[in-house]
Amino acid sequence: MSRTDYETFDLGDFRLTEGATLRDAKLAFKTYGTLSDARDNAIVYPTWYSGRHWDNEWLIGDGMALDPARYFIIVPNMLGNGLSSSPSNTPPPYDRARFPRVRVQDNVRAQHRLVTEHFGIDRLVAVTGWSMGAGQTYQWAVSHPEMVPRIMPFCGSARTAPHNFVFLEGVKGALSADSAWKHGWYDAQPTTGLRAFARVYAGWGFSQAFYWDSLYTEMGYSSLEDFLVGFWEGFFLERDANNLLTMLWTWQNGDIGRTDGFDGSLEKALASIQARAIVMPAEKDLYFPPEDNEHEIRHMPNAELRVIPGVWGHFAGGGVNPVDTKFIDQGLRDLLES
Amino acid sequence: MSRTDYETFDLGDFRLTEGATLRDAKLAFKTYGTLSDARDNAIVYPTWYSGRHWDNEWLIGDGMALDPARYFIIVPNMLGNGLSSSPSNTPPPYDRARFPRVRVQDNVRAQHRLVTEHFGIDRLVAVTGWSMGAGQTYQWAVSHPEMVPRIMPFCGSARTAPHNFVFLEGVKGALSADSAWKHGWYDAQPTTGLRAFARVYAGWGFSQAFYWDSLYTEMGYSSLEDFLVGFWEGFFLERDANNLLTMLWTWQNGDIGRTDGFDGSLEKALASIQARAIVMPAEKDLYFPPEDNEHEIRHMPNAELRVIPGVWGHFAGGGVNPVDTKFIDQGLRDLLES
Fold first, then answer.
1. Which chain B residues touch A199 with a CB distance below 8 Å?
2. Homologous superfamily of B7-161+256-337 in CATH?
3. In chain A, which stretches have pLDDT less than 50?
């Protein structure tokens, strides 16, 4: 999918936490609405694993909490997603399998520069995001507490749990089992591996009950196999394998406790958050289970746990089910009015 | 692993439900204890996905419910497990990738012949089993209600749920992404695919909380990666890829409703079960969730749902955690005394 309806912020020579410097690094983003003269109506809404800014648009609209008539909504594309600097679009020598490791902290540092240097904003209204976008949301609240009065991370966590790490080892293993992957030095996409990656992912993305109830029919799929091919394989076949692996590393190593000043302590980092938070897991999310967030909010000074009920699992936060979308929108409404 | 401490029952030309005939088919089994003169003390305890008879021995022993001093315990090896007729040990033309599809019904028919023809037993004390062994347990109660007064299926189901099917598509996809698999016509095992298979499986076998609490250390593993390599990759590297895929097909297509006389109805088949049943899911089993069994027992005339509490997930029934083993043993004790 090729779209050109976005802007790019030049990060220059961008030094990453793990040591590499991405020269002439780019942060792709799109904005919705108009920045007020006082620059006091901005919301940051980062993308998720393999998502692009347009994949966030289901939660933005007239009459919704994220209303462009009222707010200036900035959707920055995650490094590695194919629009911001990524294995697929970076020139040698840091191209393809040589693309360096990126941490959530790096993503938020790049976004912070966009917000402050490019837009001259010194305080946001809120940060929100789904899945890895939720991880970036937490990171914003930890890295820049003075700028972030409100957060609503949904279907994500402040630190990637060990089981979540293992789930990702599985999808990574499926992709890299394809010898056409060539350790990242493929000329054509390793489609067998991408399809296997997708089939593994399928079991994780939605709950047991979702499949029991054949709810994929509500998404327009005519059979279980049609869903596996049409939705899942289609989903990942349009991605680049190295991009997926770059973002996967970011995900596996997500941990706000690794931010400077917290000695690796998740709990210390959580305790430092000043934002009012509505933390919103999905009841049957298989890789970001509500238990992860229950642990978090016990250490956050001003957090409410609000569980999305129902059987859509992780994809409750993906904008595919209107009931869940309404629930999420209401959460944002409550947060923004507080 | 090569052991010779078992017997083999000749099934002769064994016709499978799907149409093929396995000529000179073999059912490998082992017995524990002594068959009484009245032939009234036999318990059948089938194996699970890739398990072999020795993998069931943790639940058999002096002073346990399955006490060889009292009962005659028959452990038949599932077709495809490498000991009974399997892709890896069947001569051409039905060898390797040509090994035919086997249903749970076929396994139970073979076991029924062993029990009746070889041992002359016309009524069992009970049938029990873990995981796919639980599926065979249900099938025994449906195919031979007059022979089966008690069952205790644990961590399994009477019909493979759609999500469970999808989980298996994922592990299958990871294995078959390895071009060394050659659609089953490999000369050496496709070890890259087997390792990927294992890594995918790792996320499913134990619960999120198990990993959060690092309980693999109680199993003797020194780190998460040590567990992924030492337990999981080791587990599947000693299996044959075609054998795994044969049993996987059996699993994906498990459904007692497909037994003759039930018109494909799971509920009708459940209602026909005469056995007293203790149905025992594990609280946090990710692919045989308790919900599957809750549905089942509503249709069974004489069933109790008894959930194994705790965080060990599917492997609560695998004999690796003493607390869960004690719980399962107590269930069997209660069942056998009733």
1. 166, 169-170, 172-173
2. Alpha/Beta hydrolase fold, catalytic domain (3.40.50.1820)
3. 1
